[in-house]
Specification:
alpha+beta; Phosphatidylinositol 3-kinase Catalytic Subunit, Chain A, Domain 5; 7-stranded antiparallel beta sheet; 3-stranded antiparallel beta sheet; 340 residues
């Protein structure tokens, strides 16, 4: 069973990471920041359609602030979705701004609605933590998913990642006779492998969603991480393997029941081959982000020493013992994919 040892430290964005963000268009000036949204005058609990407390609060702003704040968050949405073209935003309005009161970083979630057809979308405003930014960028480069996010000073803007929350899926839908258990179990194996190779930790059921796509003949599944706080921070190998979280037991049992050890090995090799292909297709970005990580502080020495020993044993490779920081450990982990 995987256990997070202590509350994670928040790391500021370094000069090297800031330079990377500017170079690849992730650092963009925008008119409102996280601290501006803290100026709300009141709030009420947000309940779901069944009357359950979501642990989010809807916040309200004074009349003098509301118009400006709503205009500026629409501007951010235009930057995120349309490269700042406000002309496409004329039919949109800010329906709600919610604050997550139980998370470490207490993010804001903005709900944007199209008044013509009532279609809606979300995005998030968060304090910029270096771990989360590295996690988002590595997800963009090394997974099958593209990620849209922007940074300015100490504020991070993230797009909403659509899907059924993992916890909800396992509670309500995993026993649906229409699901394809083999395809779903295969996707969990591949997700498990992706997280381990790129050292994304804490992927229990509350931190990923399941994207279900019905096709004319079959249903396709993709498991997508939605929380990137634990990128290359923890010191235990098990934290980077979703298979060790008890919250994921329903998916784990599905794999035990429907996948043979030979098939599991095949799926792991397939995913590593895909990661290797992505490494080769974006060599400059990968090199630049790893260089930034190697010159950054994103963990504590205790965790670095513990993880490099775990991975040295796992890969039977003493080179891990020479690593001085998490950036070097991740670089060597990715090199194992290329070697194999």
């Amino acid at each position: 069973m995987a256990l997070i040892s202590k509350k994670k430290i928040i790391f500021p964005i370094s000069a090297g990471l800031r330079e990377y963000l500017r170079k690849y268009g992730r650092e963009v000036g925008f008119p409102i920041h996280y601290n501006d949204l803290l100026r709300y005058s009141s709030s009420i609990p947000l309940y779901d359609y069944k009357g359950n407390d979501t642990l989010w609060e809807t916040v309200f702003y004074s009349e003098s602030d509301r118009e400006e704040i709503h205009h500026n968050v629409k501007n951010i949405y235009a930057l995120l979705k349309a490269e700042g073209d406000m002309s496409v935003m004329q039919h949109l309005y800010v329906d709600r701004i919610d604050l997550c009161i139980y998370g470490n970083t207490q993010p804001f979630r903005v709900r944007i609605v199209n008044r013509i057809n009532d279609n809606f979308d979300y995005f998030y405003v968060k304090n910029a933590d270096a771990s989360r930014v590295y996690g988002l960028e590595l997800e963009h480069l090394l997974s099958p998913n593209r990620i849209s996010y922007l940074v300015h000073e100490n504020t991070l803007i993230e797009e909403h990642i659509a899907g059924i929350p993992g916890e909800q899926f396992m509670r309500k839908q995993i026993h649906d006779p229409l699901i394809n258990p083999i395809r779903l179990a295969k996707e969990f194996v591949k997700f498990n492998e992706r997280c381990f190779v790129r050292l994304l930790g804490d992927m229990h059921s509350s931190n990923f969603v399941i994207d279900v796509t019905p096709d004319f003949e079959e249903t396709h599944y993709r498991i997508r991480a939605i929380d990137f706080d634990q990128q290359s921070y923890e010191g235990k190998k098990s934290i980077y393997l979703p298979q060790y979280f008890k919250q994921n037991n329903a998916l784990i049992q599905l794999g035990i029941k429907h996948i043979t050890p030979e098939s599991m090995l095949q799926y792991q090799r397939e995913e590593r081959a895909l990661i290797a292909t992505r490494l080769k297709s974006s060599p400059k970005e990968i090199q630049d982000i790893l260089t930034s990580m190697e010159n950054d502080t994103i963990s504590i020495s205790e965790n670095i020493n513990s993880l490099k020993q775990d991975l040295a044993r796992h890969y039977k490779n003493k080179q891990f013992l020479e690593c001085k920081n998490m950036g070097q450990i991740l670089k060597l982990s990715l090199e194992q994919v290329l070697k194999r």
